[in-house]
Design a protein that fits this description.
The chain is of the alpha+beta class. It has two domains: 92 residues, Aminopeptidase, CATH 3.40.630.30; 46 residues, no CATH class. It contains five helices and seven strands, in the order βαααβββαβαββ. The strands form two sheets. A four-stranded antiparallel β-sheet has the order 1-2-3-4, sandwiched between helices. Strands 5-7-6 form a three-stranded antiparallel β-sheet, covered by helices on one side. α1 crosses α3. The longest helix has 15 residues.
Length: 161
């Protein structure tokens, strides 16, 4: 069973990133340790993804950008959490930037397929702007019109005043 949790397990998010960086042969893990990652993001708002009681990833928001990470074993399996997770994210801010490394083809295809615009680039990254109406899914959700998930944190539906 998939569900959102009140906060992401930052260690699991690090593990999800580490798997990708290991695969790409990046030296970044020599600099950014698990402890440094957790310390840096500890105070950021986050929401976790869980499958069958085990943390599999999540989204965190650092005040400017969103960071999404999912363990490779659950790529393609967490999609039912996307809509309620984005509702949570957009309750914090309605226009959010996401930087994606140029070699992260899976994530680039995902964002392009859902219609979020590319708004810039750096030497290493493509920058996307996510907004509630900005992504246009090319195919209909199989449960369109049926709400399968209650909003996990009703108090977070609207931006706090």
């Amino acid at each position: 069973m998939l569900r959102l949790t009140e906060a992401a397990d930052l260690g699991v998010m690090y593990d999800a990133d580490a798997a990708r960086y290991d695969e790409a042969g990046s030296p970044c893990l020599e600099v950014v340790t698990r402890a440094a990652f957790v310390d840096f993001y500890e105070g950021c708002p986050s929401i976790g993804f869980e499958a069958d009681g085990q943390a599999i990833g999540g989204i965190l928001f650092d005040g400017e950008q969103a960071h999404i990470a999912v363990l490779p074993s659950h790529h393609g399996r967490w999609a039912l959490l996307l809509k309620p997770a984005l509702e949570w994210l957009f309750s914090l801010q309605t226009d959010i930037l996401v930087e994606v490394e140029r070699d992260n083809t899976r994530c680039l295809r995902f964002l392009d397929r859902h219609g979020w615009p590319r708004v810039g680039q750096t030497e290493d990254d493509i920058v996307y702007r996510l907004s509630p109406q900005g992504g246009q899914r090319k195919t209909a959700y199989p449960f369109l019109g049926k709400r399968r998930f209650a909003h996990p944190f009703p108090g977070l539906r609207h931006r706090p005043s």
